[in-house]
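In the current project phase, the collection of sequences with tokenised folds has grown. A sample record is quoted in full directly below:
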Amino acid sequence: MSKTQIQSIVYGPVPSWRLGRSLGIDPVSTKGKTCSFDCIYCQLGRTIHPLTERRRFVTPDVLRKQLAAVEDVPIDTVTFSGVGEPTLAINLSELVAVVREAMANHPVAILTNASLIWRQDVQSDLKHFDIVAAKVDAPNEALFQAINRPAGQISLAQIIDGIREFREDFIGKLALQMMFVQANRDQAKQMAALARKLRPDEVQLNTPLRPCPVHPLSATEMAAINAEFAGLPTINVYTAERPQVAPVDVQATSRRRPRESCIAGQ
């Protein structure tokens, strides 16, 4: 196990506007953010450990023990996310199997930046999930580099081709996560055109309401963006309902999910 490993892999549940009462699983769980991106809007701050190669961060046994402690907590979904890109965990399929065994009655989701979705081993692992929410924040390479600031040689073309290929065989629910900020707010029409080509089951229109280096768009601005996606199944961060939940471990939860900023009401 990594020396940076912390004990809390399971966190929440959190009131997700996309997934209801969501119990979080952090398959990376390092003390500093380990990610293949360094997005300008990330609520977790700068990427401390940029990484594009998959590694083993947590063990199935540790996850199994922690899930046993929350087996009676009411939830709607079990969601792989956390302090980095979850597909960096090379034993992801093993960890999903542990969740399936412990939480057999709940769908299992993953929030991924899709940086590695072009890899066949990652696609194979993602097929173990009921819900895959893949990030696309830009319609062109220049904007992708400016907003997501990928590590290594990751390109938008790789990601788009990977999502398109994954879509062909995936029998679960595929969602596109699209984060809108000032840098891409004028690209909504192009983003919608891209979404239509990828044929997702849902498009999740987001803007950063939690504290981060950039300001969120207003509800009015997001409504205008939503209109560009006419004919597509969308969910909007401003209009989606959030359930009331109480996290089991407040510290572990707030580490991965800072509270929403007061700006959110504007």
In short: The helical segments are 60-68, 92-102, 120-126, 141-148, 156-169, 188-198, 219-228, 250-256. The beta strands are 10-16, 20-25, 34-35, 49-50, 77-80, 108-112, 131-135, 173-179, 202-206, 234-236.
